[in-house]
């Protein structure tokens, strides 16, 4: 009997969803749009920074230096200027993000083996781009200087004088090319899942109230937990479909490998859905209108995005914000999904995060059931 009335409620919820095909299409299309937009826009790779060059030496040595910067894909030699004022104007307008000034005596000093200074100017209005460009410019300059020194020693017949005593062999695991998509796409799975689950369920009870059908549910023999489960199952199915949708596009389009167990990833994604859906239900039981529910769900997304490690590392945040992030379920799911997708670990490596999600799921669903029981009473 209980199964019959629960299935009836699930069937009713599916009918309501299917009666609004435009919302249904948007529900399945939004994850794809978000994945493509954020997959390309939320990119921390710094490439082809527009560079303005003021070469006062017009020498072969100066051209070799420019070739060294041109060979690296960090900079794109976009402008050649004839004065510092022209270089400053390009940086002021944002047409150039960096400027290289080569002194007139550069060629003579290089030929004479004398130390020489060049000026590299950076637009620091965007710290992310500036920090990467600064490191790249310094490394390119140092590498070019070492190459010149080695050539000079070879010309003097001393090829073994400049031998490094320590040879550092670097290895980058899990993401050898340091592609930001490998870091961002798995995180987008968590963000899209939470956004979809919270937003869809936040209007579940409010919609019944606005349509005047909440009274019909009150007079039924449905218990609070049955109403919760019946309302959630359709959205769980939709959320799982969105998860597979994002995984397939992320793998085929962005070439992000899934190194771990797909079944484990789906199981833990289902576990993550529980607190996300619970938050949506808590919002739904407290909001008066669908508009209010949507606004509250957006409000909960802001701390999740900024305090979960989605964009910024938690270790770089103040201690207070790190403590606040401990109550954000997305923080733990991001560790899980990145570990499973990129590192291919098993459940033992993410056991603490899994237990944290389970605890959050019990708490949020418990609060939602209690609030819903008060509504029905």
Structural description of this entry:
The protein folds into two domains: 239 residues, no CATH class; 107 residues, 3-Layer(aba) Sandwich (abc type-2 transporter like fold), CATH 3.40.1710.10. Helix content is 67%, strand content 6%. The protein has 15 helices and four strands. α11 crosses α12 and α11 runs parallel beside α15. The radius of gyration is 29 Å and the shape is elongated. The protein starts with a helix and ends with a helix. The mean pLDDT is 81.
The backbone outline, from C-alpha atoms, is elongated
Query: Gyration radius, to the nearest Å?
Result: 29 Å
Poorly predicted runs of 5 or more residues: none
Mean pLDDT: 81
Can you give the helix content as a percent range?
55-70%
- DSSP, total strands: 4
Instruction: Kindly estimate the percentage of residues that lie in beta strands according to DSSP.
Output: 5-15%
> Structural class, from helix and strand content?
mainly alpha
Into how many domains do the coordinates divide? 2
Distance between the termini: 22 Å
Main sheet summary: 4 strands, mixed
Order of helices and strands: HHEHEHEHEHHHHHHHHHH
Summarize this structure as a short list of keywords or feature phrases.
single chain, 377 residues, mainly alpha, abc type-2 transporter like fold, four-stranded mixed β-sheet, 67% helix, 6% strand, elongated
Give a short overview.
Helices cover 67% and strands 6% of the residues. It has 377 residues and is mainly alpha-helical.
